[in-house]
Specification:
149 residues; mainly alpha
């Protein structure tokens, strides 16, 4: 997986320094979790896809083309993955609690992009909360901040 990620970023984002491979892998893992959130209700809508591209573009300071390429690769990684552990482990190793909480905030934005929360989405978000070691009170606060009026 790391080789594919490094090749992706070197080819598409002109990253040539191998020391950045890990950072790029963490970005990919974060984008993949956003897709996990979007697809957990078995309906990846256009508003969710657009939201993910906007979030990765803003968070990682990417161009539209780079954000689209990262989102495409992240979606492929989700299809090929056998679970969340690989993504969450990478993030836990390299991101602070605040960065992980920010990711959960973004995931709630993706979940609510279609205006509703279904049981599969809630189940996934609870699992992510535990895997990313997010305090329950912060998890609930993030959920309420992004819940549609």
């Amino acid at each position: 997986m790391l080789d594919a990620i490094g090749e992706f970023f070197r080819d598409r984002l002109q990253v040539s320094d191998d020391s950045q491979d890990t950072q790029e892998a963490v970005r990919l893992a974060a984008a993949a979790l956003l897709f996990e959130a979007a697809m957990s209700d078995y309906d990846l809508g256009g508003e969710e896809r657009s939201m993910i591209q906007q979030l990765v573009r803003e968070q990682f300071d990417l161009s539209d083309e780079e954000a689209s390429a990262l989102a495409t690769l992240a979606q492929e990684q989700v299809r090929e993955s056998t679970g969340l552990h690989g993504f969450t482990s990478m993030i836990n190793q390299h991101w602070s609690e605040q960065q992980r909480l920010n990711l959960v905030e973004q995931m709630w934005r993706v979940v609510y992009a279609d205006g509703r929360l279904d049981d599969h989405e809630l189940h996934l978000m609870r699992k992510i909360q535990r895997l990313l070691h997010i305090p329950h009170k912060d998890f609930v606060s993030a959920k309420l901040r992004h819940k549609p009026g």
